[in-house]
Write a structure and sequence with these properties.
It holds the Pfam family YcxB. The protein is α+β, with helices and mostly antiparallel strands. The chain has six helices and seven strands.
Length: 169
C-alpha cells in the first residue's frame, strides 16, 4: 500500500512591528545580568577617576572626565531597555507591517525595509522562552514570537527545535 503524500508545511501571517512586539523581543532575548556584574565597568571607571584625582598630579579635568564616564556607564546599564526600545521605536522598521513565513525551508521575514530568510539548516540551537523561541545561528540570534503563530505553526516549530537541538548535541 503506498504512503499518502503529505503536503509540506507552510504558514504565513502579517503583524505590525509595534511597541509591544519590541518589548517582548527585548524581554525574551536580552541576557540577564546580575546587578554587581552589570555595574562592574561603571564602578571601575568611577574608582579609577577618583584614584587619578587623589593620587596623581594629572589635570583634574581628565580625572573628572573618567568619573563622568563611570556615571554614564551606570546610566546606560540602568536604562538599557528603555534606550534599546527607544532606538527601535524611532527606526524606520517601527510600526511597519511584517510578513512572516514559517515553512519547511526556514523562517522568512519580509517588510518594505527587509527581506530575509533564516534556513533551518543554518540554525544551531533553538531555545524556548516564555513567549517564543530564540534561534541561534552563525550570525547571532533571532527571536520568533509565539503570539504571531497558529497552533499548527507552534507545533511545527517545536518539532523543528527538537531536531535542530538533537543535531547540535
Amino acid at each position: 500500500m503506498p504512503k499518502p503524500m503529505t503536503t509540506p508545511f507552510s504558514y504565513s501571517t502579517t503583524y505590525v512591528l509595534d511597541k509591544s512586539h519590541f518589548v517582548e523581543t527585548y524581554d525574551a532575548s536580552a541576557p540577564p545580568a546580575t546587578p554587581i556584574k552589570a555595574y562592574t565597568i561603571a564602578m571601575a571607571l568611577g574608582l579609577a577617576g577618583l584614584m587619578l584625582l587623589m593620587l596623581t598630579e594629572i589635570d583634574p579635568f581628565v580625572a573628572w572626565f573618567v568619573v563622568a564616564l563611570g556615571g554614564l556607564e551606570a546610566f546606560s546599564v540602568r536604562y538599557k531597555k528603555a534606550w534599546w526600545l527607544g532606538r527601535q521605536l524611532i527606526s524606520k522598521a517601527a510600526n511597519t507591517e511584517l510578513k512572516l513565513t514559517v515553512d519547511e525551508e526556514g523562517i522568512s521575514s519580509e517588510s518594505i525595509h527587509v527581506k530575509s530568510t533564516l534556513p533551518w539548516n543554518e540554525i544551531k540551537q533553538i531555545e524556548s522562552t516564555e513567549s517564543g523561541w530564540l534561534l541561534y545561528h552563525k550570525g547571532g540570534k533571532n527571536y520568533l514570537s509565539a503570539r504571531a503563530l497558529s497552533e499548527e505553526a507552534k507545533v511545527f516549530v517545536v518539532a523543528k527545535a527538537k531536531r535542530v537541538n538533537l543535531k547540535g548535541a
